[in-house]
């Protein structure tokens, strides 16, 4: 009888642990923010129409490749001052970094999105793709 009771108690404890599985733990976490990507051509058109380009590159990448003309130079991809973003949270924002292997733009864009910016995009090809497409750049540092 004692063995049955112990088995039953262990079974109940194990059933009670199901709430602590990784799946249950993930239910309390926020899902990752999905940031849409934008092509170089569409980004160029959007910038010409008033969208804001935001450079999440390192200083070295900027010195080597320049920046998108008029881009806001972020102080950091993950802890930049939110005052660097436009006050208008409905403004189109286009984040970019070096190239398709770089994720600094993802980090920077997610920060903006989680702080209420509604139209956030990532130009996945980055400054290197921008240059390869024949788009103009500005030298860094801006003069």
Structural class: alpha/beta
H-E order: HHHEHEEHEH
**By CATH's scheme, which homologous superfamily of the domain at 40-132 applies?**
Rhodanese-like domain
Low-confidence stretches: 3-29
The CATH architecture of the domain at 40-132: 3-Layer(aba) Sandwich
Could you give a short account of the major beta sheet?
4 strands, parallel
Shape: globular
The helical percent reads 25-40%
CATH names the topology of the domain at 40-132 as: Oxidized Rhodanese, domain 1
Assigned CATH class of the domain at 40-132:
Alpha Beta
> Which sequence of strands runs across the widest sheet?
2-1-3-4
Percentage of β-strand residues: 5-15%
Q: Overall mean pLDDT score?
A: 83
- Termini separation (Å)? 86 Å
Give Rg in angstroms. Answer: 23 Å
Total of DSSP H or I helical runs spanning 4+ residues: 6
> What is the tally of beta strands?
4
What keywords describe this structure?
disordered N terminus; four-stranded parallel beta sheet; 143 residues; 10% strand; alpha/beta; Oxidized Rhodanese, domain 1; 6 helices
